[in-house]
Amino acid sequence: MQLLNMKNTIAFMTLKKPAAILSVFLIIGSLTSLAINQLNWGLDFTGGTQIEVGYAQTADLEQIRKQLETSDFKDAVVQNFGSSQDVLIRLASREGVKPSELGDAAIKVLKEADSSAEMRGSSYVSSSVGDELTEQGGLAMLVALICILIYVALRFEWRFALGSVAALTHDVIITLGLFSVLGLEFDLTVLAAVLAVIGYSLNDTIVVCDRIRENFRKIRKGESEEIINISLTQTLNRTIITSLTTILVLLALFFVGGATIHGFATALLFGVVIGTYSSIYVASLVALTLGISKEDLMPTEIEKEGADQEPMV
Predict the structure, then answer these.
(1) pLDDT tens, position by position, 181-233
(2) What are the C-alpha distances in Å from 166 to residues 136, 192, 211?
(3) Highest CATH level, class, for 12-40+130-295
(4) 87 vs 116: CA distance, rounded Å
(5) Where is each Protein export membrane protein SecD/SecF C-terminal domain found (predicted)?
(6) Could you tell me the residue ranges of all domains in the chain?
(7) Hey, do 12-40+130-295 and 48-125 end up sharing a CATH topology, with the first three levels equal?
(8) Does domain 48-125 have CATH number 3.30.70.420?
């Protein structure tokens, strides 16, 4: 299936300088925001109290959120678990207030609005656990990038490996920058989305790299930039179809999925868009800047035994 019937090659690399300037601007802006504003860490990382509440009837999550917000629990995270009558509420820690007292205060507020509300369980996540999750999450992304660097270097060529890792780092930094600039909550679901963005962007980049290598070996004449343009044009239909189908699903999650996975859908939506851009203008541009050429991608010729011997008379 082809959405676009392209007979002529699109000169993607003619925009390499504007694309490089845009990427540098976005990365600097993201790093600046991360340094100044940092991330709005969720309870998974900061620690807090988690209570399970049961209702006699189906629980209205929006109404529960409003009840808690009006009673100075503006940071409460409310979601269903198990059934529509069971609600999970997470509350951030407060200085000088015991976790048990915090949970009791929240239940008291809910009972005033609905007498059937009852606490069925509570737990507390300490800040030390949150720090450990932060460290492990960062380590997971670092290990993923190192493994990708090694794989692409062995599978293709080191210039493509550096281009792929540059594209993935580019996507992660800018996605984190979006959450920092907008002040969106960063919890474990968003971390999972960031790791998924790495996988999505890598898949797109590998397809592009594979086509570039194939065309370098197949097209006998042509400069490196021209062959990269041909390869990007040939994979454009596939890139558009993959991105559009993914975005349609994510839009449904964003608008219908509810507040619980709103951050997850936001990170993936933005990540898919920025990942598609980076597979075209970051990975390929880095490889081109590092001097990728036909000679680097030609298979090594194995000399046959006795080929250099003179024939016997």
Answers:
(1) 998 888 888 988 998 888 888 888 888 888 888 888 888 777 888 888 888 88
(2) 22, 20, 19
(3) mainly alpha
(4) 13
(5) 108-290
(6) 12-40+130-295, 48-125
(7) no
(8) yes
Q: Which of 13, 35, 36, 26 is nearest to 169 (CA)?
A: 26
The burial of 16, by beta-carbon neighbours within 10 Å (0-12 exposed, 13-18 middle, 19 or more buried), is given as middle
- Separation in Å, CA 118 to CA 53, 115, 303: 6, 8, 80
Instruction: Supply φ then ψ for residue 87, to 5 degrees.
Output: -125, 140
Tell me how far apart the alpha carbons of residues 279 and 242 are, in angstroms, rounded to a whole number. Answer: 13
d(CA 61, CA 252): 20
Residue with structure tokens 């300490």? 126
Q: What whole-number distance in Å separates Cα of residue 142 and Cα of residue 161?
A: 15
Residues 137-157: tens digit of each pLDDT: 778 878 877 887 787 777 777
